[in-house]
Amino acid sequence: MDTLTKFGWTPELTEAWAELGAENLHPARVVADFGTSLKIALPDIRTAELSGKLAHYTNRDDTPKVGDWVAVQLFDNSPAVIEGVLRRRNEIARKVAGKRTTKQIIAANIDIAFVLLALDDDFSVERLRRFLYQLSIHAIRPVIVLNKADKTDDLAFYTQQLEEFKLPTIISTATTGSGIETILSHIRPGMTAILLGSSGVGKSTITNKLLGREAQPTQEVRASDSTGKHTTVHRELFMLPNGGLLIDTPGIRELQLWGDEGDLAENFNDIAVLARRCKYASCSHTTEEGCAVQQALQAGILSESHYASYQKMKRELESLKDKKDAKARHNNRRSSKVIADQTKDALREMREDI
Known about the structure:
Radius of gyration: 24 Å
CATH superfamily of the largest domain: P-loop containing nucleotide triphosphate hydrolases
Number of strands: 13
CATH architecture of the largest domain: 3-Layer(aba) Sandwich
CATH topology of the largest domain: Rossmann fold
Number of helices: 10
Strand content: 15-25%
Largest sheet: 5 strands, mixed, barrel
Helix content: 25-40%
Mean pLDDT: 88
């Protein structure tokens, strides 16, 4: 297992493996997800498939994702078979696009996340907040990367909007290599990093620069609207020359939230502090007397756009909770019906045997 150290194996994982009691199985890390098949590191790279149990009888959340540690069975002349997944230290997730109330896990077991914003029409503080919310749920350390610095003559216009976050911010122009060494300095040997952002922000270009080779295809964005195309179509973990690990991901055009309203406090701590000062514990922060939030808004202490972002995310998470609850009730009713039908069948068989 010492040979897996370069892929992030730790003493804690050694203990978890021992508790698993996986005789005749081998630990490996998922390094690429192609949908129908996976690549794993043993540390040699092999193709792997899911066991029948994982493929057909397991919750989608529990199937292997890039970054996961798995227990595999090896064969001489066929792909390895993944029999189980070790408990994740953390994960990055979102709600799938569209109307389905389904969680999509982007990657697992991450140490640091670089959230990329391009200094063109892609720049969005609200999108940044959404990424930071998803990272905060599992205490994944974020670093902001402002890429394509060559596209603006007013860098301060962008950096001033990020001061409230009090997070490390790297200025880069990936095409020229500017800022790449600073990004690399945050990724120590054995540490797993991930690049997040919308299409066309430069994730693949940064990946190639960090690797020192053209591992990922790149495309120019449309000049008319600064919109990028999905050049990365799958998630993949790469080993960097300095011993760090990097996951590149397809662009995320729509980051729908997945989590609980309670997790908002870390991202909007100023509003949480104000809310605790309100006269009434049940204050809705609209028209109540002694509302500290409304007082701060009127005094200009609390930004209206900042509060509007909070309200929008809060409503989205409240709606998500309602949908989760409705889905759970539906599944419970369906399970109850299956149990009732099975009981009727069993009783019928008993009567026939008498």
